[in-house]
Each structure stands twice: as C-alpha cells, then as structure tokens.
Specification:
Structural class of chain A: alpha+beta
Low-confidence stretches of chain A: none
Distance between the termini of chain B: 148 Å
Shape of chain B: rod-shaped
Helix content of chain A: 10-25%
Mean pLDDT of chain A: 81
Mean pLDDT of chain B: 82
Helix content of chain B: 55-70%
Distance between the termini of chain A: 31 Å
Radius of gyration of chain B: 51 Å
Number of strands of chain B: 3
Largest sheet of chain A: 4 strands, antiparallel
Strand content of chain B: 5-15%
Shape of chain A: globular
Strand content of chain A: over 45%
Number of strands of chain A: 8
Number of helices of chain B: 3
Oligomer: heterodimer
Number of helices of chain A: 2
Order of helices and strands of chain A: HEHEEEEEEE
Largest interface: A-B, 49 and 44 residues
Strand order of the largest sheet of chain A: 2-1-8-7
Strand order of the largest sheet of chain B: 2-3
Chain lengths: 144, 141
C-alpha cells in the first residue's frame, strides 16, 4: 500500500518538474580576476573557481556584481549585475529553450548571439582587461 | 490327391447348417443401431457434464470484482502513469543535455572578435572575446 502511495507522490513530483521546465532561473555574475591586489571573494563556488583558473590562470577572483532572474517565455529579461555591464535575454524557441542575448557595456551593445541555458554548464564570457586583471561574466542556469 | 467322397460329405454337412432368415438379420441390425445410438448419447452427455462442471468450478474459483479489486486496479493504473511520466521526463532532460547547443555569435561591436567553444577542462561553455577597450584602474566599482 505504501509503495503505491510513494509512486503516486513520485508521479506528481515528476509531473510538476515537467511543468517547471518552462521557466529557467539564471544567475549572472561579474567577476574581477587578478593575481594580487584584490580580496578573494568567491563564496563556496569551488567548481566555478577551478573552471576560471583553468581558463584564465589568475590567482584571485572577486565577484563585483550579481543579478538573478527567471527567463520566461515571451518576456525579455534584463540582467544588470553592475552599472558597467548588463545583458538582455529574449526567448527565440521553446524546444529547445533558446534565448537571444545581447551584452551591453554602459548600455552600448558589445555582443549579440543565441544561447541555450543548461543546468550544470556555466557560460563564461571573457570581458575587457581591467586594472592588472580581467573582467569575466558568468551565466549559470540554476535548477529550482 | 483329395478324396472326392470326403469333400462331398463336407458339402452336405454345410448345407445342413440352418441359415438366418432376413427378418432375423434385420432385427439384429436394428438392435445394433440402437446400442450404438445409446453409447453415442452417453458419450455426448458425459462431455456436456464435464463442460458444465468446469464452468461452474471456474465461476466458483474467480471472485467477483469487489471494491478492493477496483482500488487495486486504480493504484496499478496510477503507477503505470507515474512510470510513463517519469520516463518521459528523464528522456526530455536527457535529450536537452545531449544537445551540443553551443552559444552562437550573430553580431559584435566593430573591433570585437568573439569565439564560442566548450571547454572540457573547465566544464563550461566559453565565449572568448578580444578587442575590448581597456578599463583603467581609476574606474572603481
């Protein structure tokens, strides 16, 4: 009897997961990478730090801005983790969920393209040189 | 050489054996037919009896669909539905993950060159862009 109840519960959970597929939660971070002169501020996200170290080779990484939002169908979303950079997303296709993005620096468009957010796979965009390091933009799709 | 007298004697003896008349033969045949009919009817009846017995036995063994049976059936249907939904979900997520779906660049500010790729080492999708304007250190965040 309990087995059946668990199965029913499981079915409801999985169907709600299916429905939740429509909305994707995304976090956009602006990171300053430099060997010295900055305070390390990359909380808990060791995996991201390892990825950044492999790609850029800097010793220290500091998040200087963060924005979170949900990518919904038929509604363009603007992320502004910092005054300097912002990113606009608008949905192009549903299956698979493909978004058109535009990266802006102080409201001036820099890059345009299409992106399919995937859980567990961040999108890392190399930004401009800043001070003695580099600015990096990271977009992560969060499972919720 | 056969003895002719003996042969003749045997012939006379054979002639003496009484032969059944036509009426006798007919009644014997009628009797035989009746017997055969009786045997066949008995066999038929026994087959019918067997079938009836089996049907009755089966109906006695199988219980009628009670409330609990219907409930069990509904649980089973729900379980099957759950499995179908789960399998569909895993297939849908699996197909999404299996897509390469690298980001594409459709436009950039003049002087900026961007290359998208997947880094196996970093386990991340990367847009490696070059040609930005340097941001000096006096710009503070």
């Amino acid at each position: 009897m309990k087995f059946w109840l668990y199965l029913i519960l499981f079915s409801f959970t999985s169907s709600s997961l299916l429905l939740a597929e429509e909305i994707q939660h995304v976090r956009f971070s602006l990171i300053h990478a430099q060997d010295d002169g900055i305070e390390e501020r990359l909380p808990v996200q060791d995996e991201l730090k390892r990825s950044l170290e492999k790609l850029f080779g800097y010793k220290k990484y500091r998040i200087i801005g963060q924005a979170r939002s949900s990518l919904r169908p038929q509604a363009p979303v603007m992320f502004s983790p910092h005054d300097m950079f912002s990113m606009r997303f608008s949905k192009v296709t549903s299956q698979p969920a493909m978004f058109e993005f535009e990266l802006l620096q102080e409201n001036k468009p820099l890059l345009k393209g299409q992106y399919h957010p995937k859980p567990q796979v961040p999108l890392i965009i190399r930004g401009p040189f800043y001070d003695r390091g580099n600015l990096i933009l990271v977009i992560r799709s969060e499972a919720q | 050489m056969p003895n002719y007298n003996e042969f003749e004697k045997k012939l006379v003896e054979t002639d003496r054996i009484p032969r059944p008349d036509a009426a006798q033969t007919e009644s014997a045949l009628l009797q035989l037919r009746m017997d055969l009919k009786q045997v066949s009817e008995m066999k038929k009846r026994s087959r019918f009896d067997q079938t009836t017995a089996w049907t009755r036995l089966q109906s006695e063994i199988s219980e009628p669909m009670s409330v609990s049976s219907w409930r069990a059936l509904s649980y089973f249907a729900t379980a099957v539905a759950a499995i179908v939904v789960t399998v569909a979900f895993f297939f849908s997520t699996g197909s999404q993950n299996s897509q390469p779906g690298l980001p594409t660049i459709s436009g950039a500010e003049p002087g900026i060159y961007a290359t998208p790729f997947y880094s196996e080492e970093a386990k991340a999708e990367v847009i490696w862009a070059e040609g930005y304007r340097y941001i000096p250190a006096n710009y503070t965040y």
